[in-house]
Write a structure and sequence with these properties.
Chain B: InterPro entries: 2Fe-2S-bd (IPR002888), 2Fe-2S-bd_dom_sf (IPR036884), 2Fe-2S_ferredoxin-like_sf (IPR036010), 2Fe-2S_ferredoxin-type (IPR001041), 2Fe2S_fd_BS (IPR006058), Aldehyde_Oxdr_Iron-Sulfur (IPR052914), Beta-grasp_dom_sf (IPR012675), TAT_signal (IPR006311). The structure holds 2 protein chains of 2 kinds. Chain A folds into 3 domains: 203 residues, Aldehyde Oxidoreductase, domain 3, CATH 3.90.1170.50; 305 residues, Aldehyde Oxidoreductase, domain 4, CATH 3.30.365; 140 residues, Aldehyde oxidase/xanthine dehydrogenase, molybdopterin binding domain (Aldehyde Oxidoreductase, domain 4), CATH 3.30.365.10. Chain A is 24% helix and 25% strand. In chain A, a hairpin with a 5-residue loop joins strand 19 and strand 20. In chain A, helix 12 packs parallel to helix 13 and helix 15 crosses helix 16. Chain B folds into 3 domains: 42 residues, no CATH class; 76 residues, Beta-grasp domain (Ubiquitin-like (UB roll), Roll), CATH 3.10.20.30; 64 residues, [2Fe-2S]-binding domain (DNA polymerase, domain 1, Orthogonal Bundle), CATH 1.10.150.120. Helices cover 30% and strands 12% of the residues of chain B. Chain B has a 5-stranded mixed beta sheet with strand order 2-1-5-3-4, sandwiched between helices. Chain B is elongated and about 50 Å long. Classes of the chains: A alpha+beta, B alpha+beta. The interface between A and B is large, with 93 and 80 residues.
């Protein structure tokens, strides 16, 4: 039986439960002699100019080696290609001039022999500013909102105005979602050694190749002079997907001091270091016939971007692909420049935010029409992708609805709001649809087999914690035909064959495709060697007739005529083969590749206190074939937990007077804790997809899309009150 | 450093407290520290020299049953001493503010956020870190349960979760899933492995897996 599809334990699990897994900030300190520490000093105003920096006391403090400001920082080259480097590239021209664009922007970096000395010296740097009035929130600049036709073009299908005019019922509502921060448990850590020949960077990143190319461009190096390593990553969720200033200033410090420099951003600095999910306002209009069939969907979104960023891309907007069959669809995205860090993707930047409004509006439409919310969605099931007009490559959405609803007990729902109770608690049931584009990136793998029969699979990808090490191992072992214990995975190093970024739900599909190609290529190569090897029992057999099982190669029909990989390799040299996955081009596609899901949730609301608790949640997902149900289940549970935070607790709060974040820590920015989370059930509706290698669609984002709107809808069902402003804190229900 | 002073000012709290107390103060109250705008005097008085010395002191720490001698400054947290001086990097820094639990270790059997205590305060204590749980190749039952229940993804909070779990089982707080949820709520897991963590703790406590 194939190891692909089996719930094997994480291959790196033992390292993680024993504390032996080395994350970036854990790396050995190079004999403890050379490593020094950098600490950033960040701007205390959101807009203005630095008028003076008094660093005398800091420079005189014990152990200080270097103090970098815009006066003495190495000059950086702008990185021109937005498409290559993500949305944060312009923010990376740090320490280049006296301008301050957002609170928390680095204005100085102190390097000292110990972390304590660097931290202390940083506290002694006195910065004076000529403060200007910042744009603190998107509402202040909403009249100046601009569109970005090149990077965030509108979607127009059919005639929305006519569809609305023809509708029997029109729902016209506006929703707001707050800025959020990713908050991986590991903050951004970077260690850089800069020698004459090579720059070696250990960094917490979801994209080692982006950091390599970005640093090379910025510092005027060739990419091959930069090596980037990120083996164990303490989460990311998009917050480590874009290239950001900590790695730039650490590289500056390493270049100026000639030492190996480590910079670990503080939790508070994480609010300005890596960018955020942007604050958004979403107006949705749904037109429908009396039976609920949609005649028009219009979604007009405004989101924030940073004050110095002119070309915001679609993936920081909320305007979302629509999951329903409807002849008339229009989505538009506009942006407002705010004195904040440049937004970046956060675990489904488009659907995860934009479907909050669409799915809530669908629930409002269902209530208006007196149609069951699930039935309304069934009636609007899209037979083809409404966004592209193409047929689906595969689509298990209806089965997600059916199995999720059955497991949850949806038919027992009393449609009347405030009708269900548990003692003094109001009980609400809500649901939502989730969709997410399924793609992959160009990825290369190398599989190597040694004379001991052990194999290694290498890909320059990253493991966010989602199980990449494990699924690489499974797929490569299966393709080569060896037991999974005989395969080891290596990733997270630009010296390895090139992989893509670990974001966009692309990693599993990309890595699995490349690992399979490389494993199969190596299997074919060794078979060719064996059949030509007179010393082999397989000598003279047709390569097509040689089968492999558990590391044993034999001739079809005669299991006794064969030998093990190890025996062949002992007579020949160590062997390896590569596999290169090239994703199908999006241009000219003939099918639409998407993953699907349906969330069903129960909340209990305290009518006196306005507190909301999620008490159970069922999520059904169709993401093609699941490589490892154990890691996949954990990923889905984690996505639902993040959705609970999005719905109920998480918001980055900004002081409107000075555009500074007021809750910059776990003490003020509330991510869900154990007591906030109920039992969560994940159901996998599996589908073969002939248009996707291995039928792997990816889970990272579909895991969280749909959860927040399902909770919003459940809160309405419980209380009769429709909250259109996330998160649903108690004050909004009282 | 969180942010610099907004404008040059008179003697700030940190200067008065001096170097020795700085890190401790910043550690416990980093979220409250009014770095910006604490003083907005138009003219800066002469810079004051620091008032307290912070010479390293030689201390012994008893970690995972071994006596370790090291030289630390009084302001060094137990967390930084473990990680940066003793090379015990299994204990993680998640917030350095006592709000996430990633740095949880056992001090005399009690769970403690090691970012909120100074190394020099733990001279006579018995400290246990994640590296001290397994006996050779044999994992501690809580470690085994975390593996079997897939009670983590990225693994960064896992050391702290496991140390918390070991203590709460000892405390007798693993009697029901609800109790485990409540008593494990000082340990944040952003990957959201909570249901599996509850299952693992219950399994290790002998209360059934799922």
């Amino acid at each position: 039986m194939s190891v692909v599809g089996r719930p094997i334990a994480r291959v790196e699990g033992r390292l993680k439960v024993t504390g032996a897994a080395r994350y970036t900030a854990d790396l050995p300190q190079d004999d403890g002699k050379d490593l020094v520490h950098a600490v950033a000093v960040c701007a205390a105003v959101a807009k203005g100019r630095i008028t003076s920096i008094d660093a005398r006391q800091a420079r005189a403090a014990g152990g200080v080696l270097e103090l970098i400001t815009h006066h003495n920082a190495p000059r950086l080259r702008p990185v021109p290609a937005q498409e290559v480097l993500g949305p944060a590239h312009e923010t990376l021209l740090v320490l280049q001039d006296d301008r301050v664009h957002y609170s928390g922007q680095p204005v100085a970096v102190v390097v000292a022999d110990t972390l304590e000395n660097a931290t202390h010296a940083a506290s002694l740097v006195r910065v004076e500013y000529a403060e200007e009035r910042p744009v603190a929130t998107l509402f202040e600049g909403i009249d100046d909102a601009f569109d970005s036709p090149r990077y965030a073009p509108p979607t127009t299908i059919g005639d929305v105005d006519r569809g609305l005019a023809d509708a029997a019922v029109v729902i016209d509502r506006t929703y707001t979602t707050p800025a959020q921060h990713h908050h991986p448990m590991e903050t951004m850590a970077t260690t850089v050694r800069w020698t004459a020949d090579e720059v070696t960077v250990h960094v917490s990143t979801q994209t080692i190749s982006m950091v390599r190319d970005g640093l090379a461009t910025t510092f005027g190096l060739r990419p091959e002079q930069v090596r980037v390593v990120s083996e164990f990553l303490g989460g990311g969720f998009g917050g480590k997907a874009a290239w950001c200033w900590p790695s730039v200033v650490t590289a500056m410090a390493a270049r100026l001091t000639g030492r190996q420099v480590r910079l670990v951003t503080t939790r508070r600095q994480m609010f300005a270091a890596t960018g955020q999910r942007p604050h958004s306002v979403q107006r949705v209009r749904l037109g429908a016939r009396r039976d609920g069939v949609l005649t028009a969907i219009a979604q007009d979104c405004v989101g924030e971007t940073s004050a110095f960023y002119d070309t915001p891309p679609f993936y920081i907007g909320a305007a979302t692909p629509v999951p329903y069959g409807c002849p008339n669809i229009r989505t538009t995205q506009r942006f407002v420049k705010v004195n904040c860090q440049t937004p970046v993707p956060m675990r489904s930047p488009v659907e995860g935010v934009g479907l909050v409004s669409v799915e809530s509006a669908m629930d409002e439409l269902a209530a208006e029409l007196g149609v069951d919310p699930l039935e309304l969605r069934r009636r609007n099931y899209a037979e083809r992708d409404p966004n592209s007009g193409l047929p689906w490559s595969s689509n298990g959405l209806l089965e997600c609805y059916e199995r999720g609803a059955r497991r949850f007990g949806w038919p027992e729902r009393n449609p009347e709001p405030r009708s269900m109770r548990d003692g003094r608690y109001l009980v609400g049931w809500g649901m939502a649809t989730a969709i997410r584009h399924a793609g992959s990136d160009p990825t290369s793998a190398l599989v190597r087999l040694g004379a001991d029969g052990r194999a290694v699979v290498q890909i320059g990808s990253q493991d966010l914690g989602t199980g990449t090490f494990t699924i690489m191992t499974q797929v490569a072992a299966d393709a080569l035909g060896v037991p999974v214990e005989m395969m080891r995975a290596e990733l997270g190093d630009t010296d390895l064959p090139t992989g893509g970024g670990s974001f966009g739900s692309h990693t599993a599909a990309s890595v699995a495709a490349a690992a399979r190609l490389a494993g199969e290529a190596l299997r074919a190569k060794v078979i060719r060697i064996a059949v030509a090897d007179e010393g082999s029992p397989l000598s003279g057999a047709s390569p097509d007739d040689v089968l492999v099982d558990d590391g044993y190669l034999f001739v079809r029909g005669d299991r006794s005529r064969g030998e093990r990989y190890a025996q062949i390799l002992r007579r020949n040299r160590l062997q390896s083969a590569t596999g290169d996955h090239t994703p199908p081009p999006r241009e000219g596609a003939t099918v639409a590749r998407w993953a699907f899901g349906a969330d069903f949730t129960e909340v209990k609301v305290d009518p006196e206190l306005g507190t909301v608790r999620v008490t159970r949640h069922v999520k059904a997902i169709e993401a093609g074939r699941i490589i490892n149900p154990r890691t996949a289940r954990s990923q889905v549970i984690g996505g639902v937990v993040m959705g609970i935070g999005q719905a109920l607790t998480e918001a980055t709060e900004v002081d409107r007077r000075d555009a500074r974040i007021t809750n910059a820590g776990f003490w003020g920015y509330h991510v869900p804790v154990n007591a906030d989370v109920p039992d969560i059930e994940a159901i996998f509706v599996e589908r073969d997809d002939p248009h996707i290698p291995g039928s792997v669609k990816g889970l990272g984002e579909i895991a969280t899309i749909g959860t927040a709107p399902a909770i919003l809808n459940a809160v309405f069902h419980a209380t009769g009150k429709r909250v259109r402003d996330l998160p649903i804190t108690p004050d909004k229900l009282l | 450093m969180e942010s610099s002073g907004r404008a040059a000012g008179g003697p700030s709290r940190r200067q008065v407290l001096g170097r020795g107390a700085l890190i401790g103060a910043a550690t416990v109250g980093a979220g409250l520290a009014p770095q910006a705008g604490a003083a907005r005097a138009a003219t800066a008085p002469p810079v004051r020299e620091e008032t307290l010395a912070a010479e390293p002191v030689e201390i012994s720490l008893r970690v995972n049953g071994r006596e370790r001698t090291l030289s630390v400054e009084p302001r060094t947290t137990l967390l930084d001493a473990l990680r940066e001086r003793l090379g015990l990097t299994g204990t993680k820094k998640g917030c350095d503010q006592g709000a996430c639990g990633a740095c949880t270790v056992l001090v005399d059997g009690r769970r403690v956020n090691s970012c909120l205590t100074l190394a020099v305060m733990q001279r006579d204590a018995e400290i246990t870190t994640i590296e001290g749980l397994a006996r050779g190749d044999e994992l501690h039952p809580v470690q085994r349960a975390f593996l079997e229940c897939d009670a983590f993804q990225c693994g960064y909070c896992t050391s702290g979760q496991i140390m918390s779990a070991v203590a709460l089982i000892e405390e007798g707080h693993a009697g029901s899933p609800e109790e485990v949820r409540e008593w494990m709520s000082g340990n944040i897991c952003r990957c959201g492995a909570y249901p599996n963590i509850v299952a693992a703790v219950r399994q290790a406590a002998g209360g059934g897996a799922r």
